[in-house]
């Protein structure tokens, strides 16, 4: 049985307009779309304080919802400015705490490399920092890693090089299907064994892609993410219908 989640960024337009908060989003995903899995985007987290996180966890538990992925911005590992790097590190630690409180199974923290290449210094620093994050996350059954959605992380060769450099079983990827700057014909499948969660949409998840990634070793869930930014309820429903069709969804789908 395939697990489908709706990713929080799919409603970033409503967040910007002030017409949706995280609690509203959970209600919508559970009762409008009938799903029990949500990929939380930390843009929707109003706080990482214990009292707020406890309220979110209560809302998740009341709806029997799971969090296969907590995708975090503003806490990338690398920044050229040392002070900014430390600021993002502290934010990453706060989001690791949030992942534990919310029961997230994976945590997306990006490399932070804006250009399409990476230096040896950057790679060594990033690998060491991820190793630290992985040790923290494994204590509560979570994995940590980047998403291939900007800069050097869209290079599959560099992604595989980082897997080797981090060398920790809790280092896993949030794989954004087909978002690569090279090797697009094989990159998803090459990285599939290292992925904890994926982002897909109606255009990228085909029957052929489902078969090839599964054959390559991917066994996680399928997170629907789109960037429409407007009319998001309708667009999300259309995306969900298309993904369900590919996955052969059944009434027992979670």
Characterize the quaternary organization of these chains. Answer: single chain
Quick one: overall form? globular
Distance between the termini: 8 Å
Q: What is the gyration radius calculated from CA atoms?
A: 17 Å
Mind telling me which CATH architecture this is? Alpha-Beta Barrel
Protein structure class: alpha/beta
**CATH homologous superfamily grouping:** Divalent-metal-dependent TIM barrel enzymes
Biggest sheet: strands side by side, in what order? Answer: 5-4-3-2-1-8-7-6
Q: List unreliable stretches of 5+ residues.
A: 249-254
Number of helical regions: 9
Sequence of secondary-structure elements: EHHEHEHEHEHEHEHEH
Mean pLDDT: 96
Strand fraction: 5-15%
Q: Give a quick account of the main beta sheet: strands, pairing sense, barrel closure.
A: 8 strands, parallel
- CATH class reads Alpha Beta
State the share of residues found in helices, binned by percent: 40-55%
> What is the CATH T-level topology?
TIM Barrel
Structure commentary:
- This protein has 254 residues and is α/β, with parallel strands linked by helices.
- It has one domain (4-247): Alpha-Beta Barrel (TIM Barrel), CATH 3.20.20.
- The chain has helices at 12-17, 22-32, 50-62, 82-102, 120-138, 156-166, 187-191, 207-215, 232-247; strands at 4-7, 37-41, 66-72, 106-109, 143-145, 173-176, 195-200, 221-224.
- α5 (120-138) links the parallel β4 and β5 (143-145).
- The longest helix has 21 residues, at 82-102.
- The protein is globular and about 50 Å long.
- Residues 249-254 have low confidence and may be disordered.
